Amino acid sequence: MELKKLTDRIYYLPHEPEADRPMLAYVKGDRLSLAIDAGYSSLHVKDFYEAIEAADFRKPDFTAITHWHYDHTFGMHAIKGVSIAHKKTNEFLRSQQEKAEDPSYIEILKNEDEHFRKEYCGQKELNIVLSDFEFSDEITLNLGNVTARIFHTVSPHSEDTTCIYIPEEKLLFLGDSTSEDFFNGGYMDKEKMASLIRTIDSTDCEYCVLSHCEPLKKEYLLEYLKNMTSYTYVTLRERPELKEKAAAWFHSKWNVPEAAYLACMDMYLAHKTEYGWYLCLDQEEIAGGLGVIENDFHDRKDLTPNICAVYTEEKYRCKGIAGRLLELAVDDLRIKGITPVYLITDHQGFYERYGWEFLCMVQGDDEPDMTRMYIHK
Ligand SMILES: [Zn+2]
Known about the structure:
Blueprint: E1 4-5, E2 10-13, E3 24-28, E4 33-36, H1 42-54, E5 62-64, H2 70-73, E6 82-86, H3 87-100, H4 105-112, H5 114-119, E7 133-135, E8 138-142, E9 147-152, E10 162-166, E11 171-175, H6 190-201, E12 207-210, E13 216-217, H7 218-230, E14 231-235, H8 243-254, H9 258-269, E15 277-282, E16 285-293, E17 306-312, H10 321-335, E18 341-345, E19 357-363, E20 370-376
Parallel strand pairs: 4-5, 5-6, 6-7, 11-12, 17-18
Antiparallel strand pairs: 1-2, 2-3, 3-4, 8-9, 9-10, 10-11, 12-13, 14-15, 15-16, 16-17, 18-20, 19-20
Helix pairs in contact: 6-7, 8-9
Bound molecules: zinc ion.
Zinc ion is lined by residues 67, 69, 157, 176.
């Protein structure tokens, strides 16, 4: 894959959804160069460096780390030049090193995470290193007519979040900072998010760069994040008065009779089943929703229960709402001892992002073609 040009001085190797590799960026000064993030593995570093060479650039003199997560740091042993990380990043990496003393740790990670499994396919060892240079608040690098301000900030994603601001290019690298904390059950700390929003707001930048998507205009990202924090996620048991409204809403989306939804919801509200209904609300408006039923109209009656009626209103799409509703439902069921959970869909690549795996094809009732069945273990 080739480097993409973002500005005259900034290039990047795009994120790769297959193994969920984050994007790796290259900041080209007149004298020195800086890479942002070390990548998932030595293979990821190799791909990055090959793209750098193909563009006729030098290998990076520095590599700054945005946070400790595997996909950003486990390639650090393979980089050239000086690595730079926040002291908390190194603390986290030290604890990863300790875990990796057990040779089976790599297999544990492969089992837990299908992206890790893809990135480390056929590999038996991890090589986790700490950074060469450690900072606690912020440092500024002068790369030659371009500077990089590397600073620690509060974010909902991880405690060691580091951002990199390039003032001359009006660009802010945010790593994964705007996402929830995957190592804390996907928890989204709204206060930390509000603090991060203030940080972004007060930074004089045009574009923001997140590790797992394409660069975004600052205003667009801010609008998206402000939206994100204004939604509430509820189960129907928490808001039983929404039953009629929710049944009418699901009916309008899926054409299943309203009475069928009401019957399932009544059973759930009366505690006759733990198969629940979950809603995302923007004020009092339903922005998205889903339910859990025994069987979502297909021939594999043994694969139960099923998530059904997953829907997000058009104007609320691409804000991670369906993903959070899925997590909410899966976690809620798991607490009640109901696992695994299944769903059928024609989408590919969406459910995988939330820990679902393709299981098999099933025959939907009265459907001409087979449909895809997913499992969440
Ligand atoms: Zn991360």
